[in-house]
């Protein structure tokens, strides 16, 4: 097995169900792989006593080069959230727009800044929506999710701000349920071609409804769901900063056009299926990639896995990449009291360095391997496993800046499964990574169902390659 080296990374089914806007049952939405916020869950969780860490907007990794008005002026973006907002959509929007150089404000429409998202992830907003009501934004972008979209719809301040945004011909957008649940009742879709999540498409005006993943109609941009969030955010970057910046962001996120047959590779196949609900541990630290954290949480909870997010810091509040504050479920020492079927390390170069320093996590990983249980790492955190000798005789994937040219990796694969080890290359393959875990734990049908809820393309037929194939043990083909 060849070595990994640590280096500095760049900051980087169709649904025929017709839900009502006002009375959507939890059962109906769970069947569509949505997560409905339970009103009681917020009370059951302990409110952190520590104050959120200060989080200045990060230094842009890319200088804007295509601002029609003033190239030196920082663009201002508002991303509002409420109870039940979709965490993947919210975090991906904030993360990518900040990478592009925008000053993004994450604003809560609730009375408190801490908001529990649709999949149970807890996010801490920058400010309350009332504190930015008099500001002018270059873009207002609404994440979806239920009942998050309804919470946004019912916020009078946000309605007034977004309506003014549209009247003054400034950019605004919405994704997933938000176009139909939020913008439509506000009258902001008139004479606009619009797309949204397939579960809500029948609610849009028939003549103006389109089924494209992302739709730009004048100042309005709409998109379909968590699985289209990357392209939604990149489209907004393009409109704010131009083609050059949008392309640079795509490249930095490793958003390459990869054929399905090369996205995922598996070697030394073993069964991951369990006779109980899988218990998953996701350790987090300051500097972890927020997109990777929320994507894995969201996807595995949609699949009905028991996911525990544990902080290796002294506080359960984590300052993730791009200034996003996440709230873990517990501290790592508390999580270590029980055995987990799967441990997944999120990436982020500074986050990986802090995870590496945790003695508790180091002990857990060694016990995980010794017990023949499953573990894995994303992006730069693969180096943690290498340093602990957990990649011996294994194929692994990681970010190009972390892996030496001699590393034993499958050529071109974004996600690699080797026995009970799973790794990936970076942010753009986080969804593929999460779905690969679901397929191994629950089967192909469950993974496909989760992918459909995300509006994410997933291979329909899995075929095994001949055992003598050196390039891959599997390839994927679509059924016709």
From TrEMBL:
Annotated spans, Disordered = 40-73
Name of the protein in question: DJ-1/PfpI domain-containing protein
- Per the record, the domain of life is Eukaryota
Instruction: State the UniProt keywords alphabetically.
Output: Repeat
Q: Does the keyword 4Fe-4S apply?
A: no
Spell out the GO cellular component terms annotated for this protein, sorted alphabetically and separated by semicolons. cytoplasm
PANTHER family per UniProt: PROTEIN DJ-1 HOMOLOG C, PROTEIN/NUCLEIC ACID DEGLYCASE DJ-1-RELATED
Stretches of Basic residues bias are at 43-54
Stretches assigned to the DJ-1/PfpI domain: 75-237, 279-439
Q: Which family does it belong to?
A: Belongs to the peptidase C56 family.
Instruction: Name the source organism.
Output: Cinchona calisaya
Q: Which InterPro entries match?
A: Class_I_gatase-like, DJ-1, DJ-1/PfpI, Prot/Nucl_acid_deglycase
Q: Name one Pfam family in it.
A: DJ-1_PfpI
